[in-house]
């Protein structure tokens, strides 16, 4: 499959590159005053600066959750940022759970 037709080859090569450079996937549950304070948009900016891929969303319970993948050091740096969040956030707890490695194309805000 590595040497498949035209555009498919590029997709496969990109996925292999991401797999080789993606060493950690974690699920985050962020509690506190984290909705209505631009937490998700700010987290997306930070994730993109760190080359972190995955998603982030609000929960019905008023929390924020994320699933992120990337270089272990960069994921840890992202986790540390999540413990503080943007200026108007008041983070009370961040629960981190390691997950099986996943490959994402980008970091996105989901609903």
Structure characterization notes:
The chain has 111 residues and is an alpha+beta fold. The protein is 36% helix and 32% strand. It is built from three helices and five strands; from the N terminus they run H-E-H-E-E-H-E-E. It has helices spanning 6-21, 39-49, 72-84; strands at residues 24-33, 53-58, 64-70, 90-99, 107-109. A five-stranded mixed β-sheet has the order 4-1-3-2-5, covered by helices on one side. A hairpin with a 5-residue loop joins strand 2 (53-58) and strand 3 (64-70). It is globular. Residues 1-5 have low confidence and may be disordered.
- Assembly type of the chains comes to single chain
**Average pLDDT metric:** 88
Q: Any idea what the radius of gyration is?
A: 15 Å
Shape: globular
Helix content: 25-40%
Reported for the largest beta sheet, the result is: 5 strands, mixed
Task: Report the structural category.
Answer: alpha+beta
Order of helices and strands: HEHEEHEE
**DSSP strand tally:** 5
Put simply, the count of helices is 3
Sequence of strands across the biggest β-sheet: 4-1-3-2-5
Give the percentage of residues in beta strands.
Answer: 25-35%
Poorly predicted spans: 1-5
Distance N to C terminus? 34 Å
């Amino acid at each position: 499959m590595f040497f498949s037709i035209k555009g498919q080859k590029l997709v496969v090569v990109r996925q292999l590159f991401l797999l080789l450079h993606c060493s950690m996937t974690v699920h985050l549950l962020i509690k506190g005053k984290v909705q209505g304070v631009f937490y998700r948009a700010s987290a997306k900016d930070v994730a993109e600066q760190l080359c972190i891929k995955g998603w982030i969303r609000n929960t019905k319970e008023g929390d924020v959750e994320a699933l992120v993948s990337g270089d272990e050091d960069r994921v840890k740096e992202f986790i540390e940022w999540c413990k503080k969040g943007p200026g108007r956030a008041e983070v009370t707890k961040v629960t981190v759970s390691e997950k099986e490695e996943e490959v994402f194309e980008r970091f996105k805000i989901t609903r």
